[in-house]
Write a structure and sequence with these properties.
alpha+beta, 60s Ribosomal Protein L30, Chain: A, 5-stranded mixed β-sheet, 26% strand
């Protein structure tokens, strides 16, 4: 009964860490936790018992935590790296190398220890069939990144042709993954295509919400 009541009567959300105040958060009765939604180019770190969620097509999310210091987070990136010919202003967490480094560095600042980091990888689906296989490029990048940096993935769900909804619980390391229906696949593919085009043509015009 207490568990049911806790899902119906949410407590106040945890205070976000500095720099993450603007991200969308909501009470999720199914998980019984306050949940933070991240979009492409965003990441989130926390030391509280809350959930982080996103929807992935070709994009990749790394879920990373230190199980001892109980800090963790998730990122969401679209492309492995910035396009050639752009200067430092082009760099952002929309790209894999920056997204991975930003997430890991923030966790280390919160007391995480590098050798204890538990990393789980998701996404990289082939849903943009008319374009280069962006998902495969993302998978190759993130696996090479872990190898070069001396990390090993504790779990992964990569590739295929289905988009995924991912819910991560940094306090415990648990991850829930739901493959989305074909009609959702088409909608996400269209939005991801527009997002990819916007990155290539207007990198400094601000973020675009890719997933509902």
């Amino acid at each position: 009964m207490a568990q049911i009541l806790s899902r119906l009567a949410p407590t106040q959300p945890a205070q976000p860490l500095p720099g993450f105040e603007g991200l969308q958060r909501f009470w999720e009765p199914e998980n019984g936790r306050w949940t933070v939604k991240i979009l492409p180019g965003e990441y989130y770190v926390t030391r509280s018992d809350e959930a982080i969620t996103t929807v992935l097509g070709s994009c990749i999310s790394a879920c990373i935590r230190d199980p001892v210091s109980r800090v963790g987070g998730m990122n969401h990136f679209m492309l492995p790296e910035e396009s050639p010919g752009h200067g430092d202003s082009w760099l952002s967490t929309r790209y894999g190398v920056n997204a991975m480094e930003s997430l890991i560095n923030d966790l280390l600042k919160l007391g995480a220890v590098r050798k204890r980091l538990e990393i789980k990888l998701f996404g990289g689906g082939r849903i943009l069939s008319s374009l280069t296989d962006v998902g495969a490029r993302n998978i190759e990048f993130v696996q090479n990144f872990l190898r070069i940096e001396g990390f090993t993935a504790a779990a992964q769900d990569l590739g295929s042709t289905s988009p995924r909804k991912v819910v991560y619980f940094p306090a415990t390391g648990r991850v829930r993954v739901r493959k989305l229906r074909p009609i959702e696949n088409r909608a996400i593919g269209d939005r991801e295509r527009h997002y990819l085009e916007s990155l290539r043509s207007r990198p400094q015009d601000g973020e675009i919400e890719l997933f509902d």
